[in-house]
Amino acid sequence: MSSYQSIHLVKRPVTNIEASCFESRSHAVEALQDGEFRVKQTHMSLDPAMRGWMSADTESYIPPVALGDVMRASGIAEVIESRNAQFPVGATVMGMFGWTEQAVSNGAGINIIPAGLPAEAVLAVLALPGMTAAQGLLEIAKPKTGETLLVSGAAGSVGSLVGQIAKAEGLHVVGVAGSDEKCRWLVEELGFDGAVNYKTDNIAEKVAELTSKGIDIYFENTGGEIQQVAIDNMNTFGRIVVCGMIADYNTEQPSAGPNWIPIVKKRLSIQGFTMPDHFDKAPQLMQQVSSYLQAGKLKYRVHVLEGLDSAIEGINLLFSGENQGKLLVRL
Amino acid sequence: MSSYQSIHLVKRPVTNIEASCFESRSHAVEALQDGEFRVKQTHMSLDPAMRGWMSADTESYIPPVALGDVMRASGIAEVIESRNAQFPVGATVMGMFGWTEQAVSNGAGINIIPAGLPAEAVLAVLALPGMTAAQGLLEIAKPKTGETLLVSGAAGSVGSLVGQIAKAEGLHVVGVAGSDEKCRWLVEELGFDGAVNYKTDNIAEKVAELTSKGIDIYFENTGGEIQQVAIDNMNTFGRIVVCGMIADYNTEQPSAGPNWIPIVKKRLSIQGFTMPDHFDKAPQLMQQVSSYLQAGKLKYRVHVLEGLDSAIEGINLLFSGENQGKLLVRL
Predict the structure, then answer these.
(1) Which end of chain B is more exposed for a tag (fewer CB within 10 A), N or C?
(2) Do B254 and A254 touch (CB under 8 A)?
(3) Does B57 touch chain A (CB under 8 A)?
(4) Taking every annotated instance into account, which residue ranges of this chain make up the domain Enoyl reductase (ER) (chains A, B) (predicted)?
């Protein structure tokens, strides 16, 4: 192949992510320098955090993607040409290659994936989602056996792992998701103790019914009405981990939050976090998540789109909640 | 004296605290049992927490005052009769005696005040306000020299101590209060670096101007519009300590809070607390506060009401913000 395609960010979204934000460009394949290697990407991850990377907001945890640059993404790739002995031809690697068919790297930030691990499991469980779930739940919320966890965005890539790790730790687990099909999957396949369909259930009644001993940990991925209901049902000394607010990322005027009186009355703690602050713990977290995975305690499903260009429209599935499992693109 | 007066809670407030919530009753003085002693109260503290003690809400950190019981309060008293060798006649003591001229105690929860400490300094600095300020600021927010602190309710009993302790710790300190007179007091007398009058200033502009390096710690005593402004100006990894929400205690429908997106983006932590959870640390905190007081670093002022019955109307000064310093009743 003497040329390859990549997708560049050319306009920042205001509310929804429109196709006009992106431009597909063709590149000539250039010769490698010493120490470099070339990869052909096979799987590319689509994640809610991308909405933040596309905006010009400089307060976020990593700088925005510059206009004109290849859109940022993590992915799995195969080394197809190499002048770097640590990354031989044929190796399977993971890294932030972006929305592109090919990339050249000197190895910085690139990890070799052990043979036998399917790319889909790596992106769905061992990569950012699993480390985020483990860091937020185990290191920040510090769950205790017998406690009750409520997790929003429960059928999402992070939420589904949070709930399953919590079950493995002996918690009573209730998830919030956006369809009866997702709710059934949480309870019947993943072993959640209960699930709330925020689009059709009376959220306040259903949460109160399913968390009869109150909520000790609320793992927040979405925002929206569930936030107030969670606060109302929190136990004294409850912990709230704020990992995402996907319901509000695409709105121009973010919705109001709960009043803070219960924070004093119940002495709640609320902690925002993003995994990149804790990358020093990545090896330890990955080991923890791997052990759950090998013990058969973590199920996952992937929603696979086909071909580079499918990312452009496909990313919006994350914000409409239409994706069925970890969203990724097969190239 | 063969009888004494006390004020009993007979009705729970819905919004404002009305005089009809209380009833003054006369009691006959009864003989002491072995181990008991009788006190004549000289000073009684009025505190925002009383609004919570009067409501039937069982989620609060201590049970509500039962209807018919003497209204709860801490105070300073003199032992006037004793069958307990640890509390001899003439001793000055501090305890939760309630809204009453006299009380009988077996010594539980009662502390002897060392000679030479004025009752007003004890109630205004060393009692609940000082321990609350020290616990919230030093133990929870963990300030570092050079950081910026914003404190709401800054002219209040807790807020004024939070700001002064923070100054002693080398922070840049900005307070929010409800009159120009209070703001002048904060800056000219207490040494705050700046003050915002939330009733007349453009809060957003003034806070941004006075906290040009952003806010590292927000100590929340009030709620209201300042909450959103604080969130908007917080630095990454900022800490918010929620000690009170006095602006909302008397409203039937509490106001909405800020959206949670900045909590993720800036990885903020928000921690609600009440001092009674930390009474095990009281001796250590009291020692810390005493050392600041003895070093001349803590100024205070008291707003003194005269006579037991003055508490009934006087408690509302706390919620209108009309009190000028620590509110107490001299009996």
Answers:
(1) N
(2) no
(3) yes
(4) 15-329
Q: Chain A within 8 Å of B68 (Cβ-Cβ)?
A: no
A224 dihedral zone (left: phi>0; alpha: psi -120 to 50; beta): left
Phi-psi region of A317 (alpha: psi -120 to 50; beta: other; left: phi over 0): alpha
Question: Would you kindly state where each structural domain of chain B is located, as residue ranges?
Answer: 3-116+301-330, 128-277+287-291
Backbone dihedral angles phi then psi of residue B269, each to the nearest 5 degrees:
-115, 140
Main-chain dihedrals φ then ψ at residue B302, nearest 5 degrees: -120, 145
Q: What does the pLDDT look like over A200-250, one tens digit per residue?
A: 999 999 999 999 999 999 999 999 999 999 999 999 999 999 999 887 776
Find which of B142, B220, B264, B269 to mutate to test the A interface (most A CBs within 10 Å of its CB): B264
How close is the nearest chain A Cα to the Cα of B1, in Å? 41
Residues of chain B positioned with their CB less than 8 A from the CB of A268: 270-272
Instruction: Choose, out of B55, B255, B260, the residue to mutate when testing the contact with A (most A CBs < 10 Å).
Output: B260
Q: A283 CB near a chain B CB, below 8 Å?
A: no
Contact B287, B131 (CB under 8 A): no
- Rounded Cα distance between B229 and B216, Å, is 13
Supply the ipTM of this predicted assembly.
Answer: 0.82
- Burial class of residue A316, CB neighbours in 10 A (0-12, 13-18, 19+): middle
Instruction: Read off φ and ψ for residue B297, nearest 5 degrees.
Output: -90, -10
The closest of B188, B185, B168, B166 to B177, measured between CA atoms, is B185
137-176 in A: which are within 8 Å (CB) of B? none
Number of C-beta neighbours around residue A267 at 10 A: 18
CATH 3.40.50.720 is right for the domain spanning B128-277+287-291: yes
Q: State whether A59 and B268 contact (CB < 8 Å).
A: no
Residue percentage of chain B with pLDDT more than 90: 72
Distance of CA A252 to the CA centre of its chain: 22
- B59 vs A258: CB contact, 8 Å cut-off? no
What pLDDT is attached to residue A299?
A: 92
Q: Decide if A245 and B268 are in contact by the 8 Å CB cutoff.
A: no
Query: Is B135 at the interface with chain A, CB within 8 A?
Result: no
- C-alpha triplet A58, A60, A61: angle, nearest 5°: 120
Tell me the pLDDT band of A323, cut-offs 50, 70 and 90. Answer: confident
| Amino acid code (one letter) for B262 | P
Q: Who contacts B130 (Cβ-Cβ below 8 Å, separation ≥6)?
A: B161, B285, B286, B289, B293, B298
| The CATH fold of domain B3-116+301-330 | Quinone Oxidoreductase; Chain A, domain 1 (3.90.180)
Q: What is the separation of C-alpha B28 from the centre of its chain, rounded to a whole number of angstroms?
A: 32
Residues 6+ away with beta carbon under 8 Å from A169:
A137, A138, A143, A145
Query: Is A271 an interface residue toward B (CB < 8 Å)?
Result: yes
